[in-house]
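cron nightly-structures :: item 1 of 1
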Amino acid sequence: MVGFGTLMTTNTLLTLLFTFISMFSVNTKLALITLALTPISSYTFWTIGRRVNRRFEQLQAQFGDLSAKAQENFSGIRVVKAFSQEEPEITSFAKVNRDYLDKAVGLAKVNGLVWPAMQFILGGAVLAILYIGGQDAIEGRLTIGQLVQFIAYLQLISWPMIALGEVTNMIQQGWASLGRLEQIYEADPTVADPVDPVLAPIKGAVEFRSVAFAYGPAIVLRDISFAVPAGGSLAIVGPTGAGKSSLVNLIPRLFDAQQGEILIDGIDVKRYPLPALRRAVGYVPQETFLFSVPLRENAGVGGGGVAAGQGRRRLPGALRHDDRRAGRDPLWRPEAAHRHRSGGGEGPPHPHPRRRALGGGYLHRGRDPQAPARRDARADQHRRGAPHLHREGRRRDPRAR
């Protein structure tokens, strides 16, 4: 866009400049009549450009909705199939797709106004020159050759004027995209680094003091207080939606509590730099995600060094076994991982996604995965069902037999 726009702008400006100089050298009155077209052309470009900008923003927003709808169906295809929602989802996607098509056609219609609008303006200019210049030629104030020469100059600037309109539309489209990006770049993070950070090493003692947290008007946590010493353990049990995940997410400051204090080693978590705080927390998510890389690199996310081949001996035994399997079976190649995530019937999902998550916590903390801040019941089942996953830890779960 930049290269083509720069080329067309330079060509247009230089052509217009030297053509108008030649016009004034032939006949000043006719040159002024032609020059009067400039404000009309400018107003036309401005009007069309505003519409292009507005419609392109709408098109980009609709494309985002279309992409989100597609991603939602790909990632949740198992749920869609389990509840026989294929036809409703197809209908819903078709509606979003139709809205995108309508907006794209609307943008194309506005873009298409540039050529006929400029042809109309230039045609009016030729008509005016023929009428006024023809009278001057009849009265002898202008030769036929000069009149033809002037009309040739008008034809010479016709394409640069149209190209200028196209460039204006391109600029408006780019400006609309830039505006959407600026909304992201200029957004202030709700969780920010402290102005005066504490750089003390984190040992791991966690304390909640009268903590309350809400998602908008929905209060999730009320007056939560507890203390866990460094090296200690705490089980948080409750039904779905009770706020267990929300409580744990407050420790690495994925969210900030509206009330109360969260302390680590007696220091408010808001005083720690975010990178240092989050590196100190071993995190096992409820929903695992596999990147399209070998399993050892997935397990090394957040652990540091494993992805580069350093410290492979630290990788738990179960994951080493899965990693060796990945080298034998083409279904486990990194480039096939995206098919496994979709669960759309093109290949089996990863058999032990929880192992990957637990292995990441293992490597990140350098000890048994029960140390990470978060784990759910299914992860615990995987942990008990794979005792060799923990043989290299400092402690071994006595239940894993």
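cron nightly-structures :: done
The chain has three domains: 2-185, 206-279, 295-390.
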